[in-house]
Amino acid sequence: MRDVTGRLMLLDTASLYFRAYFGVPESVKAPDGMPVNAVRGLLDFIDRLVKDHRPAHLVACMDADWRPKWRVDLIPSYKAHRVAEEHPAGPDEEVVPDTLSPQVPVIEAVLDALGIARVGVEGYEADDVIGTYTARATGPVDIVTGDRDLYQLVDDARGVRVLYPLKGVGTLQVTDESWLREKYGVDGGGYADLALLRGDPSDGLPGVAGIGEKTAAKLLAEFGDLAGVLAAVEDPRAKLTPTQRRRLTEARPYLAVAPKVVRVADDVPLPDVDTTLPRAPRDPEMVDALAARWGLGGSLRRLLVTLGA
To answer: What is the pTM of this model?
Structure first.
């Protein structure tokens, strides 16, 4: 990873283009009739983010593997309900709307032509790429995602915050440690423990039976972290109800592996790419060709003006 000085913005790209797809009408189409609502919506998102936050560096983080085998080996239910087709030799195919799938290569081509760094690493999710960039950053970091899993990276001391879109990206929830403590009773480092205790049906994580978000927060407030909760199970003097003690004991096999699944990796082998926010497109002719081919019009023009400002 090259030296990054100044504010680094990390995009959870799939999360954002899914939001764009569902937020922009499918009537937004290319000249040949193919919907480009996700493409144009994502370009509008990036334009607004750059305009409002002026990062020095920008990385569009990608899912090279949205359901890594090493996570599935530990918890087989991990994202299992979102598998469209299994591929033993490579990444499983995810359930994606029919009119979104053809737009993803267009998004990738446009980002590349603009010169916006696009990083995915085989065997890892975008979350892991984001986690590794965050761990190695020496300046402030803005993580833009609609996935609450990344709250675990929030760190006030290092200037790491999550910008969570509430409506498009015009209205962002700025998630810092004070917000997390008020909402969940934990800081960034404690969010992963809360999430694995609570579980997450959207990711196929079972959690501990009978322990919801409020109970998980109370346990972490009482015992500090997951290790403290597990130590309390073995301590007859610890303030656990008999039911809590039994359920946590029964969940020990899950709790032994869940941290590795839930916590984002911070040791991904990142490629050597220039993350500097481009002031001008890397390939102007390709940008023009893509704009004409896919009818990207005002969305692309506005972003080019913003990048050059």
So the answer is: 0.95
